[in-house]
Amino acid sequence: MAYVNIEVRTEAGKVGIVQLNRPKQLNALNNELMDELGAALKAFDADAAIGCMIVTGSEKAFAAGADIGAMASYSFADVYKGDYITRNWETIRSIRKPVIAAVSGFALGGGCELAMMCDFIIAADNAKFGQPEIKLGIIPGAGGTQRLPRAVGKSKAMDMALTARMMDAAEAERSGLVSRVVAPDKLMDEALAAALTICEFSQIAVMAAKESINRSFESSLSDGVMFERRMFHATFATTDQKEGMDAFVNKRKAQFRHQ
Ligand code: CAA
């Protein structure tokens, strides 16, 4: 697939990078871009050489939200009957290898929601997160009312969604929305280092950890703990578990074969 709205590359043959590329619109997210993003991530997910993915934008904007120009004339009948605007956005949830969001600049509306769909967010210190849909007479439509309170708690989520206040990178880190904050010129280095670290580990263990953590959002504590226990026990069926523990016992670096 030839991409128009994103740029795709690999680093070290192991990390798949997708850069959103509509700079004039501050990477506003339209269906074409989201189709391309979904296709690129799925292709990386299916590529045995790839262990981790990074989604990023430009220094000024990760993404300034769904494309308001494209949405402006839609009626209720259009969006409801056609399940318009965000119907293809959840593709990212089907990706089984880790996806890191490297966020610089604005991550607003659907941009914040897209970042939250990734497994964790590394932010540049100029990042600004927000759900300003209320200013447009709408509400978040790609999971913002669900993922934001889970990430930062009810009070801050309500504050952001009801007043359209933006959260800067320091507050986002304090609140648990982002995992690390770095200088803008170090953002990709930091995200890449995290991705390469992940690639060093057993891919089966990495995927099982991701699946188990995501399960915590969908289940009761006891069901989630049981799911984790089954996955934990299953890792003992892998050669990577034997390798990891033997390497520790014999004080050498493990060489995982993802089996
Ligand atoms: N959709 C379409 N175009 C957008 C856009 C968006 N979400 N955000 C910015 N742009 C465009 C602007 O229209 C402008 O285009 P022109 O140069 O052709 O006029 C260009 O990007 C640069 O934007 P600004 O001139 O506004 O730049 P700024 O630095 O002054 O402000 C900003 C930056 C604060 C991000 C401002 O652009 C802004 O508020 N954007 C809208 C943010 C927003 O409301 N996002 C939510 C969208 S709805 C949504 O996402 C629904 C959902 O949950 C899925």
Automatic annotation (TrEMBL):
Key words of the record:
Lyase
Q: GO molecular function terms here?
A: enoyl-CoA hydratase activity
Q: Which Gene3D superfamilies match?
A: 2-enoyl-CoA Hydratase, Chain A, domain 1 (3.90.226.10), Lyase 2-enoyl-coa Hydratase, Chain A, domain 2 (1.10.12.10)
Entries under PANTHER family matching the protein? ENOYL-COA HYDRATASE, MITOCHONDRIAL, ENOYL-COA HYDRATASE-RELATED
The entry assigns this protein to a family as follows: Belongs to the enoyl-CoA hydratase/isomerase family.
Q: What is this protein called?
A: Enoyl-CoA hydratase
**Highest taxon above the source species:** Bacteria
| EC number(s) from the headed UniProt entry | 4.2.1.17
- Which SUPFAM superfamilies does the entry mention? ClpP/crotonase
